[in-house]
Design a protein that fits this description.
It is found in: Bacterial flagellum basal body. Keywords: Bacterial flagellum, Cell projection, Cilium, Flagellum, Periplasm, Signal. This protein is an alpha+beta fold. About 20% of the residues lie in helices and about 40% in strands. It contains six helices and 23 strands. The strands form seven sheets. A six-stranded antiparallel barrel has the order 4-5-6-11-8-7. Strands 1, 18, 21 and 22 form a four-stranded antiparallel β-sheet that branches. The longest helix has 18 residues.
Length: about 375
């Protein structure tokens, strides 16, 4: 029997003062860093039935809504179900979801996702019957139907079972047909509103400046104005076509900027350090104390022909070892130097996480520390 505990000590001494190192500016197209406000997706939802399952569907007694839905569907098809009860498990009730893309037109197709509602064990081999998909306003925008594709599988016997992935959810590729278009159209807009995916005042101002520089040469006057850190409004020139204007603006290249940030996931040991993260000169000492406890119990037998009893005598060995604990000076004026300094310390990711937290507490980490 073996038990071990790991205790870590962290000593920080902050000495401020560092020089900034220039780095190459990051550039991107407007279409890659911003989205059009009127060009967002709309979520659709519906309730339907999957038929044709091989005994892996809902139990009609434990999932009464499945039986009610099946009876209602058959009655709509002109089949009477009064007085009869079914115990077959080849039907499953599912929730059907889809995303209606912007500017979608009637007749185009969508991928839909299906997820089991009852106690079905697998949706493999099933077929989704006609299901209407509604938006947040209650209007029906699409109708879905088709064979369900399931990536996971589940098999079981009397004494064992095996499962890989999730067998109670799947997709119907191109399974929905759009029946109604969205009320608003793109060319009905009087202006364009760009929404930054990563809100930042500097990037918003640079987008407006880039658009105005292009518009001044093309249309003779500026047309963009940054509203805040997330939105940039572009007024449509009278002589311009809105679709062509959008096609011209979305390919303009802009110098982007993001706040310095360090993202730490303690569960997985993942550390993501942004390019603008800087660390003032700091001395770090990271020591590791390991305590091992070994239990080796011994069995003691009584003497022959005696009236004694067999007993167990405990025996414990405790070993204490300490490694590391060397002091290193960490100075990270840029990302490359910071990563090299962390690697030179020679600690594992959990140790680097503790060091970053300590550097932040000491005030030497010039970035936002996000712990997930």
């Amino acid at each position: 029997m073996k038990r071990s505990w790991l205790a870590a000590g962290l000593i920080l001494l902050s000495v401020f003062g560092t020089a900034d190192a220039p780095r190459a500016a990051d550039t991107a197209r407007i279409k890659d860093i911003a989205s059009l406000q009127s060009g967002r997706d709309n979520q659709l939802i519906g309730y339907g039935l999957i038929v044709g399952l091989q005994g892996t569907g809902d139990g009609l007694r434990s999932s009464p809504f499945t039986e009610q839905s099946m009876r209602a569907m058959l009655q709509n098809l002109g089949i009477s179900t009064q007085g009869g009860q079914s115990s077959a498990k080849n039907v499953a009730a599912v929730m059907v979801t889809a995303n209606l893309p912007p500017f979608a037109s009637p007749g185009s197709r969508l991928d839909v996702s299906v997820s089991s509602l009852g106690d079905a064990t697998s949706l493999r081999g099933g077929t989704l019957v006609m299901t209407s998909l509604s938006g947040a306003d209650g209007q029906i925008y699409a109708v879905a139907q088709g064979a369900v594709v399931v990536s996971g599988f589940s098999a079981q016997g009397q004494a064992a079972s095996v499962t890989e992935g999730v067998a109670t959810s799947g997709r119907v590729p191109n399974g929905a047909i759009i029946e109604r278009e969205l009320p608003s159209k793109f060319k009905d807009s009087v202006n364009l509103v760009f929404q930054l995916r990563n809100p930042d005042f500097s990037t918003a101002v640079r987008i407006a400046d880039t658009v105005n520089s292009f518009a001044s040469q093309r249309y003779g006057s500026p047309i963009a104005e940054p509203r805040d850190s997330q939105e940039v409004i572009v007024q449509k020139p009278k002589q311009a076509d809105l679709t062509r204007l959008m096609a011209e603006l979305e390919n303009l290249v802009v110098e982007t900027d993001t706040p310095a940030k360090v993202v730490v996931n303690e569960r997985t040991g993942t550390i993501v350090i942004g390019a603008d993260v800087k660390v003032s000169r700091v001395a770090v000492s990271y020591g590791t104390l390991t305590v091992q406890v070994n239990e080796t119990p011994q069995v003691i037998q009584p003497e022959p022909f005696s009236n004694g009893q067999t007993a167990v005598q405990p025996q414990t060995d405790i070993t204490v070892s300490k490694s590391g604990s060397k002091v290193a000076i960490l100075n990270g004026p840029d990302l490359r130097t910071l990563v090299a300094g962390l690697n030179n310390i020679g600690v594992k990711p959990d140790g680097i996480i503790a060091i970053l937290q300590g550097i932040k507490s000491a005030g030497a980490l010039q970035a936002e520390l996000v712990i997930q």
